[in-house]
Amino acid sequence: MSESRAATTQTKGTSGKRRYAMVIDLRRCIGCDACMVACKAEFDVPLGVFRTWVPYKVVGTYPNVKKQFLPRLCNHCEDPPCVRACPVEATYQVEDGGFVLQRYDRCIGCKACVAACPYNARFMLPKHRTYTAITRVVDKCTFCHHRVSQGLVPACVQTCIGRARVFGDLNDPNSEVSYLVSHFATQVLRPEQGTKPHVFYIGADRNHTEFGRDVYRRSEGLELDRQSFNRNFKA
Amino acid sequence: MGDYAVFHQLAWPAGYAVYFFISGISAALFFFSALSWFNEEYKPLRGSAFKLSFALLVLGGVLLVVDLSQPLRFFYTLNPLFWNLRSPLVWGTILLVLFGAVSVGYHLAMARADDKTARLLAVAGSVLALSLPIYSGFDLAVHQHRPVWNTPLMPVLFVALSLVSGAAVASFLAKGDARLLARLRQIMLWTAGAVGVMLVSLLVTTAYGGAGEELTYLLMTSGMLGVVFVGLGGVLGTVAPIALLLAPMGRQAAGLQIAAALLLVGGMALRYAILIGPQIVQIYF
Fold first, then answer.
1. What is the pTM of this model?
2. Residue A47, SS3 per DSSP
3. Phi, psi (rounded to 5 degrees) for B120
4. Which residues of B touch A35 (CB under 8 A)?
5. Is A28 buried (19+), middle (13-18) or exposed (0-12) by CB count in 10 A?
6. Confidence (pLDDT) at A6
7. How many whole angstroms separate alpha carbon B68 and alpha carbon B63?
8. How many beta-carbon contacts under 8 Å exist across A and B?
């Protein structure tokens, strides 16, 4: 047996510390968007922005077509470019657990972290919010740090009806995520960026997770939608 | 049908390009004012270039602060306890503050006719001034996932853009001084030539890059952004003024100032396209 394959320990962080990760089994995702709704409810995420979202691509040739879903969220990278980019350490990494979190009261709104994130996981909170006073600072998924520290799983994992999302400690050999990562072929998004993401996918086809030509030849409908978004979304 | 499309925000909009433009000109004008202590030909620029440099520095600082979504928290960037020294933005803040302080000292030394101090501050200020476009370049270059930005060319390109735009503005402050205009013409020619060479290099390496690079190349060379980048920035703002400066007309004040105006248009267009273009692919990821 060759030992030359890069070991998964590369992504496990400090020995003896917890390292939370999410495994998303795309074979189980039905695109119901319940995770998006649960996340919105958990954090009062305003209209127009998302901590987690479920884009899809239609793959195949008619009549044999299907929607390939790819749930997205902050990857809570081992080497997060956003933490590196923030000038005032408003974003930071929790050593025990690996959560990448945001100090809202310190964020100056320079958007350096938004520019630095290869996964579009960060967004500027708009002025309008229903119940929460935190506005006009950068926000992102926290892996539901407040729930996990109470022994619960993130809201999106709790609500996923297909059990496509699994959450746990990679450093715990008995956890389900450890089992899945060690027994199945998993993929991460944009591995070439060297961020060492902690969101693993089972069944992600890289042909569908990379930039496609449709970025250059965008449909008229998509452009109209974007113009409307730009008009109505004022951060 | 009926699906909700999730859109991502452009992190750094056009306002940053204006800041890059203004701070680049400010830095180069200070450099020309400082040169006047070592080369008599630049003496007509000493006062006027410095004053405009300082005004643009203040304007650039205001633009930066206003662009923050929490402008009053700008002061956090001045607190060493909050500094993240791995972020180029922190270095930018430190350099801007130091450059501003040295500029004030330089002004006071000139007002007191203290030539020795003014000369020393001119050297220190020049180093700080040229570090402004260098930091701007690194500000973009550190984003490992952005085509065009993530190249070692960025800091050098921003220094060249700063010098060419600054020399163009200085030609309007030269008040027809023939010797000074001849110097500025040389600076404009060489730096515009350097910008042109770097643009070609950037375009070729981007066109032959990976999927993101190739798409960015396509986006930056077609449509409205293509008009701005290739048309205004490359042809009208770089090639045309070089041709004009090489022609006999370019040696006369009027021709030189037409070339200078074109270089300013090109400088702004290039900064805009280089800032916006590499962000487009990413927002659709």
1. 0.93
2. coil
3. -65, -45
4. none
5. middle
6. 47
7. 9
8. 121
